[in-house]
Amino acid sequence: MNAPIPLSNASLRQLAPALRVPQYDRSALRAGIVHIGLGNFHRAHQAWYLHRLFDAGLNHDWAIIGAGVRASDAAQREKLLAQDYLTTLIELDPAGKSAEICGSMIDFLPVEEGNGPLIAKMADPAIRIVSLTVTEGGYFIDPATGGFNAGDPDIAYDAAHPAAPRTAFGAIIAALKLRRDAGAGPFTCMSCDNLQGNGAVMRQTVISLARLSDADLADWIDAHCCFPNSMVDCIVPATGPKEIAMAEGFGLRDAAPVTHENYRQWVIEDAFCSGRPDWDKVGATFSPRVQDFEAMKIRILNGGHQIIAVPAQILGIDTVAGAMAHAGIRALLHKVVTEEVAPHVDAVPDMTPVAYLDLIDRRFSNPEISDTTRRVAFDGSSRHPGFIVPSIRDGLAAGLPVDGLALVAASWARYCTGTREDGSRIAPNDPHWSELNICAKTAETAPLKWLGMSRYYGDLGEEKAFADAFCDWLLQIHAEGIEAAIAAYLSR
């Protein structure tokens, strides 16, 4: 077997004919988007849609410039810089793997303290969209109220140092100030994270932070910038040695390849203040009903991930497909979603909640996707309030059962004790792990202590129907194990 060819502009024509490579002249692309947060999801999703547009001969003035605000982003920049910002996308279809080279990103800004290069680039009038994937927990939201968390230390720093901020949002505000002062006009701020109402959340964060240091600027941003809501969906595992070896199997050396499922969806509110690419011409959907699409996805897919990943982790099951192969966990997903989640989710064009659950079952069960339960269970302190708690509240308000959702919450409390049922250690897996771990151990004998964490549950500890069910489940899980608790729920 020949040695893998290092990925670069120069090597594209040397690659095997089976690999799909860019059909456009990358040197002729011009930047229109700065994207902050160059993780795997962005490169398999938003960057892919642009790549396919470019392949169709369209929108060549909308190329992406990558950016990051964390020190760890510098390592990603070095990897991508060495391969001319190209990415190998490997589709993991059970019928057979395929690969293509995505070339829609043309630069990655230096990562520097104070974010000077990022601010300068966003101030360039050629940039008309600034998009982000910074995770659900990256928007400085108070989980108890849904409001802006002005007390975060990074927010306080940015308010005191608006010209040299730490956060992506501080950098956006600094760039918008330069644009306003120069008469360059606004840009669209576009969240691509898994948050319901992600555009509204981003608006809240940007404007609230701006108001801490410059009320007039905050008013200008509010009046002139757009913050479209969007729903994004594609299962994209983390990259490790296995994925790098997979790229080598296609004959190329890529330091940061991306694997993904054979499914993508992107639904976007058509609200852009400075133009946009024609994403709809390559499969995206512009719709005024983004909230309905995202409610279905967040409640059933993202909530479903929490339903299966946490018990799987407790049992030592490493992959999402492995969790779906466990009869009890798969049945738990179907019963909880059908009885306690789907009743609060509206249908969207061509898809009912029950049909969507069937689609999710097939996607989660894809054996080619080595998506780990640990990755899915990460940051439960953001994901449970965002993906599970809203269904609990809707169920209580409607007088419908919440027993299964109480079991899901109890499973998370058990997970945060930090040990599996076989006695092995669960490594810290949440930004607030220390706090969660201490509370979870206390809750082994005093379950209401867990629901007393109002930043995650608000007043749900005072809702008798939910609190009683939660306490019963948590005590049973500790006494008899997670499988016994699941079996008891399924027998009801």
List the keywords:
492 residues; alpha/beta; Rossmann fold; five-stranded parallel beta sheet; three-stranded mixed beta sheet; 47% helix; globular; NAD(P)-bd_dom_sf; oxidoreductase activity, acting on the CH-OH group of donors, NAD or NADP as acceptor; oxidoreductase
CATH architecture label name of the largest domain: 3-Layer(aba) Sandwich
**Tertiary shape:** globular
Please tell me how large the radius of gyration is: 23 Å
Largest sheet: 5 strands, parallel
**Total number of β-strand segments?**
13
Describe this structure in words.
By secondary structure, this protein is of the alpha/beta class. It has 21 helices and 13 strands. The chain has two domains: 5-288, 3-Layer(aba) Sandwich (Rossmann fold); 292-490, N-(1-d-carboxylethyl)-l-norvaline Dehydrogenase, domain 2 (Orthogonal Bundle). The strands form four sheets. It has a five-stranded parallel β-sheet, sandwiched between helices. A three-stranded mixed β-sheet has the order 5-4-11, with helices on both faces. The chain has a three-stranded mixed β-sheet with strand order 9-12-13, with helices on one face. It is globular. The chain starts with a strand and ends with a helix. The mean pLDDT is 96. GO terms for molecular function: oxidoreductase activity, acting on the CH-OH group of donors, NAD or NADP as acceptor. Residues 290-472 form the Mannitol dehydrogenase C-terminal domain.
Summarize the structure.
The protein is an alpha/beta fold and 492 residues long.
